[in-house]
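Input structure tokens:
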């Protein structure tokens, strides 16, 4: 009997069941449901419930809280990709009169606009959205708490503004735009603004007694783009696959990669914790792997979606209690269990279909001063530069029509790499953002800035 590579081993499945069983029992959750995605599809689903024989399946809705923000960010990136705005635009350019218009769209997406974390007035998650009918009611008289662009400060009102921006540029309600442009193309038919049966009820669990209290389920009104949505593990598993690889019907792979790229300055505590924020996505370094996604909470519900692109594994965890299970830790553990038990099988190595002699000539060892680097020509047509050993600056480079190359990441992102040729056409040295790389350490035949001592290398007598 053969086993499909997409299927999980029985031992892996048991480890996943054990992890969510511990989370539900120790977290005293009325129910907890989870899913794992690999290779772009759901490969495991599990649930635990306090009601015997009534475990929720992939179609039971839970409130997902701030995972809603990632959906809103997708809508904003679509506007950018269509040329209707630039992320560097001030909000005032497209949505005038808010009182927070000096913040850029990118700053709102990354929570660096300096806005307050919550709206003024009563606890917005437990009160009707009708109490905040206008943006001015969401922002208050003093919306800014920090200098714009200087600090990462999570802001729910900031995503309310982004939802209003979507409505302004699309000429339609945020809910309608979301359904038309994201939910329907991706087949997320069980994701909605209002709960649709079957759905879980939200509960508070008494901290000192095994007793329950139902939580109110409020319509958030203007605040909906920050946290209104209901969804299922089935739908969020498909959404996770989209966030990992993109979908041309919604956003390209490059644009979702941009969402997963750090965009916010991290505070000292965040650096030590290994967490930061991209464009509508939380990013963390945990268990030696880079994870991207988002968490969510509203009274009665906790949610987490997490992706390891390198491992090609994602996880979704939903539960219906105000506090208890650490769903972020559970999601990260589900990814780790699969990634460690069944490591990703790499694609077969394949040689280049064709390589130009002028490019092949660049391959091999180079020296920046006395630092040894290797430049490789990879099967995707890029150049890859990295130290021969140990840590150091690494980057890939994309070819330009004029024979130069442009760095794609790290220290050399956007920097030009220019092969400098002698009169006979051979390569003398590389100029990388003004740094000279030579075939020998401080090659005397290359124009090394500052010159090279004519007496050359020597010992100490």
């Amino acid at each position: 009997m053969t086993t499909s590579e997409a299927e999980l081993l029985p031992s892996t499945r048991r480890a996943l069941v054990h992890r969510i069983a511990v989370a539900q029992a120790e977290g005293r959750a009325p129910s907890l449901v989870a899913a794992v995605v690999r290779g772009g599809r759901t490969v495991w689903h599990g649930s635990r419930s306090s009601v015997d024989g009534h475990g929720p399946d992939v179609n039971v809705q839970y409130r997902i809280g701030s995972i809603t923000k990632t959906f809103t960010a997708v809508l904003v990136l679509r506007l950018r990709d269509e040329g209707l705005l630039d992320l560097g635009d001030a909000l005032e350019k497209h949505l005038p009169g808010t009182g927070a218009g000096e913040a850029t769209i990118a700053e709102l997406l990354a929570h660096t606009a300096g806005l307050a974390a919550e709206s003024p007035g009563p606890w917005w998650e437990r009160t009707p959205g009708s109490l905040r009918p206008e943006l001015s009611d969401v922002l208050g008289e003093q919306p800014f708490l920090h200098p714009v662009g200087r600090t990462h400060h999570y802001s729910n009102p900031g995503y309310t503004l982004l939802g209003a921006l979507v409505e302004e540029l699309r000429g339609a309600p945020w809910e309608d735009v979301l359904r038309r442009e994201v939910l329907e193309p991706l087949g997320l038919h069980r994701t909605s603004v209002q709960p649709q049966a079957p759905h879980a009820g939200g509960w508070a669990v008494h901290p000192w007694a095994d007793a329950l209290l139902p939580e109110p389920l409020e319509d958030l009104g203007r605040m909906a783009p920050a946290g209104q949505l209901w969804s299922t593990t089935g739908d969020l598993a498909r959404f996770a696959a989209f966030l990992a690889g993109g979908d041309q019907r919604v956003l390209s792979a490059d644009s979702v990669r941009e969402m997963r790229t750090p965009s916010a300055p991290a505070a000292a505590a965040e650096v030590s914790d290994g967490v930061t924020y991209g464009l509508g996505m939380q990013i963390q370094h945990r268990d030696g792997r880079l994870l991207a996604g988002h968490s969510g909470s509203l009274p009665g519900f906790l949610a987490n979606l997490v992706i390891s692109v390198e491992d090609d594994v994602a996880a979704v965890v939903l539960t219906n209690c105000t506090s208890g299970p650490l769903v972020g830790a559970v999601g990260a553990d589900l990814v780790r269990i699969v990634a460690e038990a069944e490591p990703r099988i790499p694609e077969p190595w394949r040689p280049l279909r064709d390589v130009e002699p002028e490019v092949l000539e660049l391959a091999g060892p180079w020296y920046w001063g006395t630092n040894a680097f290797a430049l490789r020509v990879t099967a995707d047509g890029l150049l890859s530069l990295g130290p021969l050993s140990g840590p150091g600056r690494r980057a890939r480079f994309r070819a330009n029509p004029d024979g130069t190359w442009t760095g794609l990441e790290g220290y050399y992102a956007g920097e030009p790499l220019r092969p400098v040729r002698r009169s006979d056409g051979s390569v003398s040295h590389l100029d990388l953002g003004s740094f000279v790389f030579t075939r020998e350490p401080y090659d005397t035949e290359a124009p090394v800035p500052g010159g090279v001592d004519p007496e050359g290398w020597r010992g100490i007598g």
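Residues 10-26 form the longest helix (17 residues). The radius of gyration is 26 Å.
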